[in-house]
Amino acid sequence: MKPSASLMDCVKKFLSREPLKNAYQIAVMDEEDLRVIVDDRESPENVVLVNEGTITMRGGDGLSALIREISPGTYRFHSVDTGSFQAVKGCLEEIDDRPTWILKRPPERIGEPQIEASPLTEEDALEISKYWGRSHMDSVAYITKRIRDAPAYGIRKDGELVAWSLTHRVTEDAMMLGFLHVKEQWRRQGLARAVTEALCQHALEYGLTPVVDIYHDNEASFLLAKSMGFEVIGENHWFSARVPEL
């Protein structure tokens, strides 16, 4: 059953208290196939959103009771902060956690690209999928959609796509950057900085704040982001886990 408009409004109001930290969850609210589980339908403090096998959550101790309403099975999970992650650990099994930093870039720190980047085309999706960490057949369709529906920039050398950065989600407040990659032989030439700057310029033009998720073990991307003026605003947890039988 599709969530009621009143419930959706209440959940968006709850998530909009921190629109940059909760940007992914706010964006998911626009998906057609969405299940919303809350502790209070008029004034929620614990929210779980289920969309296409991914479960994302924000709240506190009350989250564990909401997770128990989900059918047993293995899912991909996302929690906006460590508190939400800790709240559900006790009711899940086979947890494989990979935390990320959430960073934002204030508008005053956005500059002009020193190397020209150009918009990607849908034909670039297959090449990009070969280098994405989650590469599989469905990833081509997802990347194609991201290129079609949101800003995406790349740099070409002699006709070959050698660097790129795309946008995962866009909300009223945030542009969520992702997919940043430079082919190995073209690294340390400022190309990652250039494609990131192109996306940030686009965000600035539309009054949006660039936001990025960077895995804790991706030191190179973290140092690049910090050098460009991004600042840490929180911590995400992306993990797989099994909801056990009651």
Give an overview of the whole structure:
This protein has 246 residues and is α+β, with helices and mostly antiparallel strands. The protein folds into 2 domains: 5-100 and 236-243, Aminopeptidase (3-Layer(aba) Sandwich), CATH 3.40.630; 107-229, Aminopeptidase, CATH 3.40.630. The chain is built from 8 helices and 11 strands. It has an 11-stranded mixed sheet, sandwiched between helices. Strand 8 (160-170) and strand 9 form a beta hairpin. The relative contact order is 0.19.
Uncertain regions spanning at least 5 consecutive residues: none
The strand order across the widest sheet is 1-2-3-4-11-5-10-9-8-7-6
Structural class: alpha+beta
Q: Just give the CATH class of the largest domain.
A: Alpha Beta
Mean pLDDT: 93
Tally of strands: 11
Oligomer: single chain
Share of residues in strands: 25-35%
Helix content: 25-40%
Report the C-alpha radius of gyration, rounded.
19 Å
CATH superfamily of the largest domain: Gcn5-related N-acetyltransferase (GNAT)
From the N-terminal CA to the C-terminal CA, the straight-line distance is 24 Å
Largest sheet: 11 strands, mixed
Q: What is the chain-wise order of helices and strands?
A: HHEEEHEHEEHHEEEHEHE
Categorize the overall geometry. globular
Which architecture of the largest domain per CATH? 3-Layer(aba) Sandwich
Describe the secondary structure blueprint for this structure.
Blueprint: H1 5-15, H2 23-28, E1 35-38, E2 47-51, E3 54-58, H3 63-67, E4 73-79, H4 82-89, E5 93-104, E6 118-119, H5 125-129, H6 137-149, E7 153-157, E8 160-170, E9 174-182, H7 191-205, E10 209-215, H8 219-227, E11 231-243
Parallel strand pairs: 3-4, 9-10
Antiparallel strand pairs: 1-2, 2-3, 4-11, 5-10, 5-11, 6-7, 7-8, 8-9
